[in-house]
Amino acid sequence: MTVTSVHDPSHREALWELEDAFERGDLVSLFGRCTVAYEGRAASDLGPGDRLLVLKPDGAALVHTDEGRQPVNWQPPGSEHRAAVREGRLRVVSTRTNPAETLTVRFSDVHQLSGMAVTGGRDLALHGSEEDLRTRILERPELVEPGFEPKATERPSGAGPMDVFGVDADGTPVVVELKRRRVGPDAVGQLARYVRALREELGATESAGDDGDGVGGGDGETEPAVRGVLVAPSVTDRAAERLADRGFDHVALEPTPEE
Amino acid sequence: MTVTSVHDPSHREALWELEDAFERGDLVSLFGRCTVAYEGRAASDLGPGDRLLVLKPDGAALVHTDEGRQPVNWQPPGSEHRAAVREGRLRVVSTRTNPAETLTVRFSDVHQLSGMAVTGGRDLALHGSEEDLRTRILERPELVEPGFEPKATERPSGAGPMDVFGVDADGTPVVVELKRRRVGPDAVGQLARYVRALREELGATESAGDDGDGVGGGDGETEPAVRGVLVAPSVTDRAAERLADRGFDHVALEPTPEE
DNA sequence: AATTTCATATCGTGA
DNA sequence: TCACGATGTGAAATT
């Protein structure tokens, strides 16, 4: 049998089942009334209440209440679970080092405990990520703009690797920053750093110490012409302002085609 | 009884228990072999495998494997759960709108199903957050530097509210940016925006179009003197460079005192 | 091990 | 509702 289960066990029965489950490498689900204490990167305390404790064979521990996607407390994978009965009550402690963290769950009542041996099916096929967006642009560069020609992905720069580097119809270098969803001002800052780094690399001669007011127009200076293009489904108002300030363009594009 | 539990139920029995649990507003734990499909902000498919499905009365749904802190698939709170038997197999669908998202879990085997009525204890007391760091500085300003005097928290600026605004021993305005943990260059950029906004507000007269090389020294220009201080446990090398570029200071401080 | 960046991030707060 | 920033963010890729 792949699943073991006990209903309203005594604290000692729960301990035995739990130790067996640890031994077998089971995925454990434990309903009960408990308090929770955490100490590590921060510290927290949670008073008595009914909760679901999930213990994984890889060391992860999750304490869930009836609300929220996030566990109210947890321990990351790589932790070590131990169970004991102290003063007649089940206690589960999960610890890890680097950083040193401890999660302690003290039960006053154990309502239900189940363990299942898990096999297979851990590979998730996910679509619609930033990588999909990059693929889409490389296959159809005209979606960025007519005449755009990608030259490289992850091209190195002084500010780190750019998402896509290419040239436009006039042969002007273009830095393309990809975001799979609506973006705020931070993405514009990221694009600006790439553009500035590329301008310096392509031979900045004067105008030192500024932060990417990217016009490169017709005045006396000979700043290398480098364009910045932000590809994202949409941008916030603040991000649009900053794009305009820098002289960058925005191309509205989804990571996957609309149906 | 606060907990119901069935072991190796038929798909129809599982459906009945599940519908009862939804009705009661139970927190549900469901072990079984299943496939999972998600479509919404992205899209994903997960082949057959043994998993734990957690269904919360607030609409959250979590699909956990035996590894990782994160669910392999999920649905946020506010979704609606529905269960049915199709072709003799239990199927759980969780949907939400805005954005439109659907999670579908198709079971080939149901091993164990439990539901618990959850009461009380949802208030977590967390220590060591950024707010703790702010409190600590307001109570002991000399931790920033001798003579520092906080004037306001969340003081508005053209770049948004600053964490802490004050003056140093010389009466020079100081913008303090707080981070509860080690920070990278982005935090320096955030601080630079506040400093620049405050300089403009306090009467910038010349040197337009640059981005905060904050010296304000003794040369001819009369840029308003505004200092920037980053309070964080530590900074990355790159962040330290940028701090030096801008003429900002770093104060090493933890959100809670070391023991 | 340290750093950087993405995520179906989630979550709270404020406008 | 949308925008913005914090999170014990987690997780992967890269150095």
Automatic annotation (TrEMBL), chains A, B:
<feature type="region of interest" description="Disordered">
    <location>
        <begin position="204"/>
        <end position="225"/>
    </location>
</feature>
<keyword id="KW-0255">Endonuclease</keyword>
<protein>
    <recommendedName>
        <fullName>Endonuclease NucS</fullName>
        <ecNumber>3.1.-.-</ecNumber>
    </recommendedName>
</protein>
<dbReference type="Pfam" id="PF01939">
    <property type="entry name" value="NucS_C"/>
</dbReference>
<keyword id="KW-0963">Cytoplasm</keyword>
<feature type="domain" description="Endonuclease NucS C-terminal">
    <location>
        <begin position="129"/>
        <end position="204"/>
    </location>
</feature>
<keyword id="KW-0540">Nuclease</keyword>
<dbReference type="Pfam" id="PF21003">
    <property type="entry name" value="NucS_N"/>
</dbReference>
<dbReference type="InterPro" id="IPR049173">
    <property type="entry name" value="NucS_N_sf"/>
</dbReference>
<dbReference type="InterPro" id="IPR002793">
    <property type="entry name" value="Endonuclease_NucS"/>
</dbReference>
<keyword id="KW-0238">DNA-binding</keyword>
<comment type="similarity">
    <text>Belongs to the NucS endonuclease family.</text>
</comment>
<dbReference type="GO" id="GO:0003677">
    <property type="term" value="F:DNA binding"/>
</dbReference>
<dbReference type="GO" id="GO:0000014">
    <property type="term" value="F:single-stranded DNA endodeoxyribonuclease activity"/>
</dbReference>
<feature type="domain" description="Endonuclease NucS N-terminal PH-like">
    <location>
        <begin position="28"/>
        <end position="115"/>
    </location>
</feature>
<dbReference type="GO" id="GO:0005737">
    <property type="term" value="C:cytoplasm"/>
</dbReference>
<comment type="function">
    <text>Cleaves both 3' and 5' ssDNA extremities of branched DNA structures.</text>
</comment>
<dbReference type="InterPro" id="IPR048301">
    <property type="entry name" value="NucS_C"/>
</dbReference>
<keyword id="KW-0378">Hydrolase</keyword>
<dbReference type="InterPro" id="IPR048302">
    <property type="entry name" value="NucS_N"/>
</dbReference>
<dbReference type="InterPro" id="IPR011856">
    <property type="entry name" value="tRNA_endonuc-like_dom_sf"/>
</dbReference>
